[in-house]
Amino acid sequence: MRQAHHPEPSEITLTGVMAALSDPIRVGLVRVLADGRERGWGELRAPVAKSTLSHHLRVLRDAGLTRTRQEGTRCFVLLRREDLQTRFPGLLEVVLVAAEADDVGRQVGVKDGALSR
Predict the structure, then answer these.
(1) What pTM value is reported for the model?
(2) What is the CATH number of domain 9-100?
(3) Half-sphere exposure for 9 (CA within 13 Å, toward CB)
(4) Coil, helix or strand for 22?
(5) Helix (H, G, I), strand (E, B) or coil at 18
(6) Distance separating alpha carbons of residues 56 and 104, to the nearest angstrom
(7) How far apart are CA 69 and CA 49, in angstroms?
(8) pLDDT tens digits, residue range 7-24?
(9) Where residue 112 falls among pLDDT bands split at 50, 70, 90?
(10) What is the sign, positive or negative, of the torsion defined by CA atoms of 99, 101, 107, 112?
(11) Cα(first)–Cα(last) distance of the chain, in Å?
(12) Which of these, 7, 10, 18, 105, is most buried using a 10 Å CB contact count?
């Protein structure tokens, strides 16, 4: 895997973030990652093919919502909560509360027995 590009906080745009959050699977991934734990891609559970999950994770990374780190052959993902809070104060919390209220992304989770880092 080549080195992933992560936008600088000043490069994160509202329209990019909102576009990335326009899919329920991606909202579910953000909900899972909102606990602040770094997760291995293999720990994530979603009702999509691995290639589709990889696409969703790339969309979140490209929009500046997540940071991806490679360790050997494994990839790990972390929500960029502080960067998002600095750039758009309160936005992430509002999205998470609304997603919880409407149960958006409920089908996304962590595999049973997955250890968090």
Answers:
(1) 0.92
(2) 1.10.10.10
(3) 11
(4) coil
(5) helix
(6) 15
(7) 21
(8) 999 999 999 999 999 999
(9) confident
(10) positive
(11) 21
(12) 105
